[in-house]
# Entry
Amino acid sequence: MINKDMTIGELIRVKPEAVETLMEFGMGCVGCPSAQAETLEEAAIVHGLNIDKLLEALNK
# Structure
């Protein structure tokens, strides 16, 4: 299960297809070095996203 404390790098390693979902939410910089160490919650805050909706989409 994907949670808000996972880093983007960790998410992509365990679920590579999640990149498409992140892009749909406007997170286009999933390959940046800094994004790799950022948690999903931190990224959601930076992008002004609702973390619960993001997690729901990623866990489908």
